[in-house]
Amino acid sequence: MNKKIKLATKGALAAAVLSTTYSNTAQADVMLHAFNWQYDSVTERADEIASLGYKSVLVSPPYLSNPNSAWWARYQPLDYRILLGPLGNKQDFIDMSNALEARGVNLYVDVIFNHMANMGMAKGQEEYPGFNVNTSEYNANKLYGDLSSGLFGPGDFHDGANANCISDWGNWWDSTWNRLCGAAPDVGLPDLRGEATDGTGDWIRTNQIAYLEALKALGVDGFRIDAVKHMKWEHLNWVFNSDVLDGIHVFSEIISHSNADDSTYLQPYLDNTDVRMGAYDFRLFNEIDHALDPGGSFNALSQPNTLPNDRAVTFVITHDMPQNDGFNGFLFSETDEKLAYAYILGRDGGVPLVYTDNNETTKFNARWVDAYKNNDLTSMVNFHNTVQGTTMEILSSDACAIYFRRGNAGLVGINKCGNAVSHSISTTGLNIGSYTDQISGSNLTINGSSQSITIPARSARMWLGGGTPPPPSTWYFSGTANNWGADEMTQEGSVYKITKSFDAGDANGGPRFKVRDSNTSWDNNCPTADFTVNANTTYTITFDPDVANCEGLSVKEEVVSGGTCPVEFSCQSGNTNIGDSVYVVGSISQIGSWNTTDAVKLNSTNYPNWRGVISLPKNTQVSWKCIVRQEDSPFTVRQWEQDPNNSFNTGNCDLNEAQGGF
């Protein structure tokens, strides 16, 4: 193995970064990792990148680095103050930033603050840059500062000529204090003392902050920090302070491919840094990896272990996986990679990363060259962008397949097995009508509350549907008669019905009401203006939602003879099993004459509190109780309200509410 490649393997995984708003809130916009692209190449493709739906682009580090043309040399900085190298100069970078900004695409860059290059390949050779940088070319590409002297000296590094290579990668102290080294006789990369509290630490941090602010001034929207597991939290928090984080998002690379890595590096990072700083979601990556194994199950992806959504960047591949032999084992097969992308681009949570490169590792036959514009992948990006911000509900999962919906117009099905799978899934909440799979172009028609769906072997489907919203399963009465609560109406075929008695109204007007399709929101309600009725009158209200423009609403006055009073009964804490309901039974015929077969059923809208209006004769003494009764077997009473009986006199309708409970 080339020792430089091996050194990079030990260094860390490098990858992608979040897209954000100026309030530092990570948005679930798809990121493109344009790995090792020249800056002018990004500029040339800015229109295409934006048109394909990408909202952010991550590019390789912009500074003076090891001049070797290989990709790993970009991760060995020589001088932060100068933006010049194989990927372009300062003007190339500015042109790229302007081109992306003009198209609404954010720009993110890699930064490496753990170490510097070792051009001399000898311990103690730590003069940076160690040569004259006060030249016209370097000054023309200066980001900040004074180039009359070097950037760092031997005192800015851990141990200098006595530095050791990391020997135990699972040991926090060893990994954060010592050098990243390749195979002997490689002496490693000089390790900066950024956490130091003496003058050397201040000088390191001052330059790193100045570098970040200079890039922000050029239009950079976010940073990916390389090799974070080798840095101390104090160093990170000093450099990425509130001023630096203002209007920016920071994302860190922390390899965590085991529980030990998670507990040693990843979780402490989350616990000890600003909540605005994100990380690769290696927890989710590991869940996907295990689920796609032949012995794994997609059940695990129904409730996976993940980073918090606002700190997670989800991914399928990072640039070190193909570039470094040591990480080749993390790669998915081409088919599994596609299935994994369907999962992270279909699900809700985190910020998905899409990787592409310039064929830096030829042994994979240009697999990721121009991958960002692969038709299947861009179709997934379109699905993601269309359903972004909508809720996610798992509909079914087993060892082979997982199905979930996004909002009311998106449906995802993924099958990892070598045979087609079919599932009958609930489609409640999805629009009625025709859906088109964004990957294959196949159509699906949803016309009911359940659907049998087949996913071909080793494939994914990501359907988007137009159609119309499904009819609500329940309609509710809301008005002055129930203090604008939500009382469930009784369904009779396609018509909903309820009887309500109105008094004089409320402080905002006379007696009036609406019907609505939710007990928590007013998104769909009829009529547009409140329906007004007469005071001290009982009405039967019917509503047919299939009739357009609220014309299915009918209100009929109930004529009460002999002088009756509407009394609203309530039974508190009426906990029931399936098939049971709460009833009122009592001493007069209107409530059963203590015969449970004639008891009056109450409404469970505010379960476990039950309510209902019953008309009773005036000037009548009434005794009553709440009971839990089986609906289909009226003699089967599960529970009686405890003694004594509730009692009242209706008088001249002086009482309009009677309360009981269990």
Q: Can you tag this structure with a few keywords?
A:
6-stranded antiparallel sheet, 8-stranded parallel beta barrel, alpha+beta, TIM Barrel, 4 domains, elongated, disordered N terminus, Immunoglobulin-like, 662 residues
The CATH superfamily label of the largest domain reads: Glycosidases
What is the gyration radius calculated from CA atoms? Answer: 34 Å
Percentage of residues in strands: 25-35%
CATH class descriptor of the largest domain? Alpha Beta
Describe this entry's structure for a reader.
The chain is of the alpha+beta class. The chain folds into 4 domains: 385 residues, Alpha-Beta Barrel (TIM Barrel); 74 residues, Immunoglobulin-like (Sandwich), CATH 2.60.40; 89 residues, no CATH class; 99 residues, Immunoglobulin-like (Sandwich), CATH 2.60.40. It is 20% helix and 29% strand. The protein is built from 14 helices and 39 strands. The strands form 10 sheets. The chain has an 8-stranded parallel beta barrel. A 6-stranded antiparallel beta sheet has the order 15-16-17-22-19-20. Strands 32, 33, 36, 37 and 38 form a 5-stranded antiparallel beta sheet that branches. Strand 12, helix 11 and strand 13 form a beta-alpha-beta unit. Helix 13 packs parallel to helix 14. The termini are far apart. The N terminus is likely disordered.
